[in-house]
Amino acid sequence: MTDPIHPSGEALDEARTAAEEPDPRRWLALGIIAVAQLMIILDASIVNIALPSAQKDLGISDADRQWVVTAYTLAFGGLLLLGGRIADFTGRKRTFIIGLLGFAGASALGGIASNAGLLFAARGLQGAFAALLAPSALSLITVMFTLPKERARAFGVFGAISGGGAAIGLVVGGVLTEYASWRWCLGVNVPIALGAAAAAVPFVHESKAPGDTRYDIPGAALATLGLVSLVYGFTEAAKQKDPRSAEVLGWTAGSTLFFLIAAVVLLVAFVAWELRAKNPLLPMRIVLDRNRGGSYLMFLLVGAGLFAMFLFLTFYFQLTLGYSPLKSGFAFLPFSGGIIVSAGIVAQLLPRVGPKPLMVPGMVMAVVGMLLLTRITPDTSYLTHVLPSLLLMSVGLAGFFIPASSTALLGVGHHDAGVASAVLNTAQQVGGSLGLALLNTLYAGAVTGYVADNLTNPADTERVTALAFVRGYHVSFFWGAVLLTLAFLVAVFVINAKKEEMPAEPGLAAA
Predict the structure, then answer these.
(1) How far from 462 is each of 149, 170, 239, 467, CA to CA, in Å?
(2) Per-residue pLDDT averaged across 144-157, rounded?
(3) Which of 45, 110, 302, 369 has the smallest set of CB atoms within 10 Å of its CB?
(4) pLDDT at 74
């Protein structure tokens, strides 16, 4: 579900002044870059299916299991803006190859991880190298494809991979987990990344951005540390107290309060620094515009609800309904298919009706779909209770993703196009990280509370525990719907863009 990052403003300017003769190897290079993008998209979803097996194998607690996903998305989102700058200034081909090699190494480390800490660290490294790989890939496409029609076709390939990659990841994750091991969900990246890096050497052309090449290292450090502290604070809040212990855990624990307060201080310091920095990582003019800021906020809220939906439905399928990893992967296919089919229709409607008439009903459908998931029980049917929800959410979210991608670039000059679109992707990744941490905390509290209130006879432990898990899913889906409702309110009261204001190059906006 990760939308691709758009290339930097410098790359757009460079492409417009490039030589008229296009790179003869550009289509071969596009194939190599497309493989790398598919790997990034796969890795955001492939691990979801493997997570129950990895959790059992490594003894990961319910409170900490979300770090397998969050460590990746948080590092990816937190370093994405800096990664784009490094690609532009150091060399896009060089950064692309370094990103591939680093991603391969981090994947291998995760595949052989012997404990939870090593797996979390490997996933964080994967996210960090993905933050180098993704923006360099898109910048390379912009530089290589100078003709508008060819560039639109190239971005169309990229958009299709980003839309369908998640579905492929779910199925591949199911196949590898069921017939090999959850470890191969990480190990499969190694030959793909190494092969793409080797092919990039002869076929991908190097390019750099001209002009000022200074990095905003303090801004990147403050933003990343602030986000990590916020997620870790939520994780600490999810820890449940042992009745035999006097230790204070949960929201009032000293460690929880420390990390949450540190997060607020660091993120406020980040904003203050960006307002005075000469070369800010995130120019405040980008986010303070009404339509752009509203779009980023919506992506953050939708990412928070959507990532959690995938996580908890995965556990419902495998732990409650007893699905195999492969069957779980196929169970998600209608969601991805619905988005892909609906996105084509929405893209045709957007120039005719504008963004808001698509966003508002789309978010209503997404909220209703999420709320319908609160009706599931240990005995309900996939066809009657899960499938309708997935289809409703997929169609509704297609009505959000395409218009919001366009409004996120509304009124942005060529120089700021790269950072504006990178903020969009960052908002979605960071939203996913925070949503997983927060909803996993609420889930853990709901499960523990249900068991404490209903387990009176030890002989009923299995039955009560199964019901407690479902109660936790209900709470998570309810609050996921609340997050989507907040996004709906932003669409209603903040977004005011008209159809005449949409970007002239929709291929770039919606890719």
Answers:
(1) 60, 29, 22, 9
(2) 68
(3) 369
(4) 80
- Which one-letter DSSP state was computed for residue 240? P
Q: Which two tokens stand for residue 139?
A: 């910048």
State how far the alpha carbon of 315 is from the alpha carbons of 141, 346, 464, 470, in Å: 38, 32, 17, 10
DSSP string, 78-109: HHHHHHHHHHHHH-HHHHHHHHHHHHHHHHHH
Nearest by Cα to 65 from 426, 303, 308: 308
Third-level CATH fold of 1-213: Growth Hormone; Chain: A; (1.20.1250)
Residues 6 or more apart whose Cβ sits within 8 Å of residue 333: 167, 170, 171
The more confident residue out of 311 and 297 is 297
The answer to whether 424 and 295 have CB atoms below 8 angstroms apart is yes
**What stretch of H or E contains 474?**
helix 461-493
CA distance 376 to 353: 36
- Cα separation, 19 vs 102, in Å, equals 32
Whose CA is closest to 300, among 128, 426, 437? 426
**Residue ranges covered by each domain of the chain:** 1-213, 216-278, 285-511
Alpha-helix runs per DSSP H in 238-332: 254-276, 284-288, 290-315, 325-331
Q: Give the Cα separation of 120 and 125 in Å (integer).
A: 9
In whole angstroms, give the CA distance from residue 72 to residue 185.
14
Residue 141 is given by DSSP the state: H
CA 500 to chain CA centroid, nearest Å:
30
- How far apart are alpha carbons 94 and 7 in whole angstroms? 16
Based on C-alpha coordinates, what's the Rg of the chain? 22
**Which tokens in the block code for residue 458?**
């030890």
1-213 with 285-511: one CATH topology?
yes
Which helix (H) or strand (E) covers residue 355, if one does? Answer: none
CB neighbours of 112 closer than 8 A, spacing ≥ 6?
Answer: 183
First to last CA, the chain: 12
- Summarize pLDDT for 177-189 with one digit per residue, the tens: 888 899 999 999 9
Decide if 337 contacts 477 (C-beta within 8 A). Answer: no
pLDDT greater at residue 14 or residue 384: 384
Interval 218-259: pLDDT, tens = 988 898 888 888 877 877 776 655 444 445 567 788 888 999
Alpha carbons 219 and 282: distance in angstroms, whole number: 8
Neighbours of 419 (CB within 10 A): 22
The pLDDT value given to residue 173: 86
Q: Which fold has domain 285-511?
A: Growth Hormone; Chain: A; (1.20.1250)
What's the rounded Cα separation, in Å, for the pair 375 and 394? 18
Length of the chain: 511
CB of 246 closer than 8 Å to CB of 51: no
Element housing 232 (H / E):
helix 217-237
